[in-house]
Design brief:
Layout (H helix, E strand, L loop, with lengths): L1 H40 L13 E3 L6 E4 L4 E3 L1 E2 L5 E4 L11 E7 L3 H8 L12 H20 L21 H9 L3 E3 L6 E3 L8 E3 L10 H13 L7 E5 L4 E3 L5 E4 L2 E6 L4 E10 L5 E3 L17 E7 L9 E19 L6 E18 L13 H24 L6
Antiparallel strand pairs: 1-6, 2-3, 2-7, 4-5, 5-18, 6-17, 8-9, 10-13, 11-12, 12-16, 13-16, 14-17, 15-16, 17-18
Helix pairs in contact: 1-6, 2-5, 3-5
């Protein structure tokens, strides 16, 4: 009999222990659930300065460069010593000719290309002669390719031989196979190359170890072609239609408004002007502080409009505003002379782009959610299980009545 009582007592204790552990385990899960669910609810421009004066004369050609495959490029300068580049491969350069500034360059691909070649941007630490050969060849290659593009942007091989941008198949082959450049008057036969192991020179002749010069310009030319129809700059104003009321219930407030300039590296900042709004409308930052100076907003700034509640009427229930973005962009011109080669140069300037927007002041009060949230449900289930566990613990630790 005593053994049976012991067995029953042992069974009760074992069951009680299992119940205690189960209750604690479920309670822990419930607490974790509260923590998990409850908290969840709670296109750069390099700086260039190669502006040309409105008028200049061309200087005498003092150096002509040729590749080891006999593709020739000369170094061209103004009488003021500014290096210039030619656009028409099939047109001769004339010395002592007066040039005048012509139309602005609207081909963004050409502007992009020229901003990323010598002298505005260099190819590594290579010799000036090699930089010049690469840059002038890149310009001619770009203009040849864009002249040769069909409506789908594919090369079709239809550049007319009498076009100023024509490059013969033999010359294209020379460009693609060249490995070094030499001054035709250099008796030392020193070729300038892309070979960093030899310090960028090859004396006597180039070898197969000297990289192809084409590799330095082909990707850049293709990138310029891909971007030739890309807008020089674009401005975007982002916001949603949510209207809230401030804690003191005196003002309506818009959602955050962000201004994005593209390319972002070229975007200096912006100015905000309110053109039409209810009386008393003003601009605040994320901390609710009034922004006094709206003429010098940073690119990273976000802002909100606040409108006095009592000033919103059926006649005035929207905010119309304009953003003026400041950009640093390329600018270049064609320089022309009668019966002569076209010359160009570019620089960077700060200029503006305007964009307007309108926000409707349609306020919809938030309706409190009277239903129990998922976090609250999990919390109460966990609490019930925890209390049940405490009851089981109490029942098991309570002294048994003697029988």
């Amino acid at each position: 009999m005593e053994d049976n009582k012991k067995n029953i007592r042992f069974g009760r204790q074992s069951f009680g222990s299992i119940s205690i552990l189960s209750s604690l385990f479920l309670a822990i899960i419930a607490v974790v659930g509260v923590v998990t669910f409850g908290f969840k609810n709670s296109y750069a421009i390099p700086d260039v300065n190669s502006y040309l004066p409105e008028k200049f004369k061309t200087a005498e050609i003092k150096k002509t460069l040729k590749s080891d495959t006999d593709f020739y490029v000369s170094e061209y300068f103004t009488d003021g010593g500014i290096q210039v580049f030619c656009l028409g491969h099939m047109v001769d350069f004339k010395e002592g000719i007066e040039y005048s500034r012509g139309n602005a360059i609207e081909d963004y691909g050409l502007l992009y290309l020229m901003a990323n070649i010598y002298p505005n941007k260099v190819f590594g630490n290579y010799d000036k002669d090699l930089q010049t050969w690469l840059s002038q060849t890149a310009i001619w290659l770009y203009l040849y390719r864009v002249t040769d593009l069909d409506n789908d942007g594919q090369l079709n091989g239809n550049v007319a031989e009498n076009s100023e941008h024509y490059i013969s198949p033999a010359e294209l082959d020379s460009i693609q196979k060249a490995r070094g450049v030499i001054d035709i008057d250099d008796d030392s036969l020193t070729f300038h190359t892309l070979n960093t192991k030899t310090g960028g020179v090859s004396v006597g002749n180039v070898t197969s170890e000297d990289p192809l010069l084409y590799t330095a310009i082909d990707g850049l030319v293709n990138e310029a072609i891909a971007n030739r129809k890309t807008p020089n700059k674009a401005l975007t104003i982002d916001f949603d239609d949510q209207i809230s009321v401030t804690q003191d219930e005196k003002y309506y407030q818009t959602s955050a408004i962000a201004v994005t300039g593209t390319p972002s590296d070229n975007f200096n900042g912006y100015e905000v002007k309110i053109s039409s709004a209810p009386d008393g409308t003003f601009v605040v930052n994320a901390n609710g502080e009034k922004i006094e100076d709206l003429t010098n907003m940073k690119a990273s700034d976000k802002f909100y409009f606040r409108v006095p509640v009592d000033k919103v009427t059926e006649e005035k229930k929207s905010i119309k505003f304009t953003v003026t973005g400041s950009f640093k962009t390329y600018e270049g011109y064609y320089y022309v002379a009668e019966n002569a080669q076209t010359i160009t140069g570019i620089g960077t300037v700060n200029n503006n782009l305007n964009k307007g927007a309108e926000i409707q002041l349609n306020y919809t009060p938030d309706v409190p959610d009277t239903g129990m949230s998922a976090a609250q449900t999990v919390y109460f289930v966990g609490l019930i299980i925890l209390l049940s566990g405490v009851g089981i613990i109490y029942a098991n630790v309570k002294p048994e009545e003697s029988k």
